[in-house]
Each structure stands twice: as structure tokens, then as C-alpha cells.
Amino acid sequence: MIKVNFHTHTNASFDGYNSCKAIYKFAKKAELDVIAITDHDTIEGAYRLIKWLKKNDKTDLEVIIGEEITCTDGTHIIGLFLNEHIPSAEPLKVIQSIKNQEGLVYFPHPARKDGIMQSKSYDKAIKLGDAFEVFNAKINHDFNVLAQKEIINYTHLIPLGGSDAHYNSDILKCFCKINLDSQNLKSSLINCNKESIQILGHKKMNGDNNYFSGYYKIKNKLNLPQFIRNLGKFAFPLYKNFKERNASFKLENVFNK
User: Fold this and answer.
1) Residue 119 CB: number of other CB atoms within 10 A?
2) Phi, then psi, of 186 in degrees rounded to 5
3) Which homologous superfamily does the CATH classification assign to the domain defined by 2-207?
4) Nearest to 203 by CA among 148, 152, 253, 256
5) For FRET with 151, which of 87, 141, 190, 228 sits at 20 to 30 Å CA-CA?
């Protein structure tokens, strides 16, 4: 069994604040064997991490090249095991682009407003998917419960989980334990025993799903100059990464098959 986090972001994402060094440090703190880098609308972060690992002679962390594509209808779809960037398009075209690269189609936070369950293309798209995120540590757990109830209807989908890490400590909030061949991750994931997958995570039981919720609530009321708003968006992630640099999280089994 190996430990995998299937949903993480680097600072290549517009809202990601994880450097390569931080990702490696916290991945090792979480005892991960494999990490999927799924930046928003780019694969640059994944290639950057692979390059960093090689430069620093780190051979104890495998990287899955992924991308969280924002479809033209606002739906988010992740492609795993990619070779090239996939541009935005409507969901069915994005799915076809992933399959053209022989990648795997992974539906993140399916029940959230930007998840596949809200898309008009859902009925067709779900049949073409490979994996379904039944736990996302970044969102209110109520959305995960809805996704877990939904996947029961689709036995072809692999139930997976990810931390959806945007900050350093987020990497510690979820991992999957799966019996995979580290030399052939994709094919062994496709053929894995779904019943044996263990997903451990830290449930978010309150709050909304905006990364800067407090900021968004007050910015218009205060009518602050734009440069102060930009400074706030820059400073808060630095503060959060520093504040939680030594944080630990109690993980529990978050998906009962």
C-alpha cells in the first residue's frame, strides 16, 4: 500500500501558495509516496516540481502530472497523467482532450457549485469519467457526503480523495492508501481493487468554501484602494503558512464503501 494525495496546488495556480520546497517538505511530513499536482489551468507547476526534485536529488516522492481545468461553463475537471496543457472548453470536449492524451478523468468536489454534478453535461460526462472525488479536505464536509451518496450509482468510477491543498499545511489534511505499483501508477490505479482503497482525511465541518471569505465580505464595504487589497491577498497566505507551519491534523476514515 502506498500513500497518495490526488489533488494539490502549487504557486503556479492563481490561488496557490505552495513552493516546490514546501510541497516536498509537507509531503514527507505526511509520509506521502505520490502526489498529484493539479494546478488550475496549467501543468507548469507539476513540471516545475519534477525538475526541483531531480535538481535536489529527491527520489522518494513520485509526481503525477495533472491539471484542474476550468470548463467554459465553470465546471472544474481534473486530468491526471497528462503530457500537455488542456485549454478550457465545454466539459465533454475537456474530457475528450484528457482521453486523447490517455489521461484519467477525475471529477473534483463534484457536489460543489463548480463540480460536475451541477453541470448540464452531467449525464453524459459521468459515464466517461474514471475517478470521483468522494472527499475534499478544503470544502465543507456536507458536499463530500453528497458526493459519496452519488458515486454509489456509478460502479465504474474510482473513489478518490485529495486535500485540494492551496497552503502548505493543507497537504497534511488527506491521503489515500492504495495498493499500486509505483513503477506503473496509471495502469495499477485503473485496475485497482476499489473496495480496498482507504481515504483518510480531516473533515471541515463548518465555514464556507471561499479561500478568503473574510476578505471578500469586507473589501467592498471598506472600499479600500486596490493596492491595499492586493497587499492583503499577498500577506494573508504568508501569514497562514507561517501560523500553521507546525500544525498537525487528526485524520480519520472519511469514506465507508
Assistant:
1) 23
2) -65, -50
3) Metal-dependent hydrolases (3.20.20.140)
4) 253
5) 87
Bridge partners of residue 161, in order along the sequence:
135
The cell for 136 is 475534499
**Amino acid in position 91:** P
Pick the closest to residue 77 from 62, 92, 59, 61 (CA basis). 92
* CB atoms near residue 79 (< 10 Å): 27
Taking only the tens place, the pLDDT of each residue in 120-177 is: 999 999 999 999 999 999 999 999 999 999 999 999 999 999 999 999 999 999 999 9
One-letter amino acid identity for 194?
Answer: K
In angstroms, what is the C-alpha Rg of the chain? 18
Cβ-Cβ contacts under 8 Å for 205 (sequence gap 6 or more): 140, 141
CA distance 89 to 71: 5
The identity of residue 111, as a single letter, is A
pTM over 0.90: yes
